[in-house]
Amino acid sequence: MTEQSSAHETIAWAKQRLDEVDAMVAQTEKAAGELQQAARGNADLALSRLRDSQAKLKEQVALLQAQADETKGAVLMAQKAVEEEWVEVESAFQAFLASAGEQSDVVRKAISARVEAQRKSFERALNGLKAQAETAVEKASIEFDTAMTRLSEEAEKAKVKLGQAPSAGEETWEAIKAGIAETKAVHEKTVKKITEALAKLF
Predict the structure, then answer these.
(1) What DSSP string runs through the chain?
(2) In the chain, where are the structural domains located?
(3) What pLDDT sits at residue 128?
(4) What is the pTM assigned to this prediction?
């Protein structure tokens, strides 16, 4: 895997985290209004923590995107920052759920919103992978067809040259041998290209 593709995977992962925290903040903001007065203070504190983490995660995702074409080390540092902030997200969300106490409807809505955000993120990621696979298959197919056409053309040339061999003089024979060697080299290169194109799919 190249450093650039690794960076793009890390960005996709970080965006999933951001989608999840966005859903958590949106739902906890709604749910906070439904809480009884006693639980409201703790819920507001937890919601404030979630909003702070949301803002920090947005900054870190933007940083990751800016570093996508830079070194692997920079991307790994940014990923570590996202992971560390995610600990705070989890802690704040659990604090919110605890503040909701026995109001199971509020807890259920908050957890459902989070699960739905996760589902959407996974669906987007899978759709992206599907599109990449389809593109790779199409490109490999084109490369395969092009390589096979060239191979067929070279094989036909070699056949013609071999047909001339019995009546060939020394000079012609050398030209035929050179042509056969060239055809063999094209064949090997073509097979290598086909193998590489197919390897991209797996």
Answers:
(1) --HHHHHHHHHHHHHHHHHHHHHHHHHHHHHHTTS-HHHHHHHHHHHHHHHHHHHHHHHHHHHHHHTTTS-HHHHHHHHHHHHHHHHHHHHHHHHHHHHHTT-HHHHHHHHHHHHHHHHHHHHHHHHHHHHHHHHHHHHHHHHHHHHHHHHHHHHHHHHHHHHHGGG--HHHHHHHHHHHHHHHHHHHHHHHHHHHHHHTT-
(2) 3-102, 135-199
(3) 77
(4) 0.50
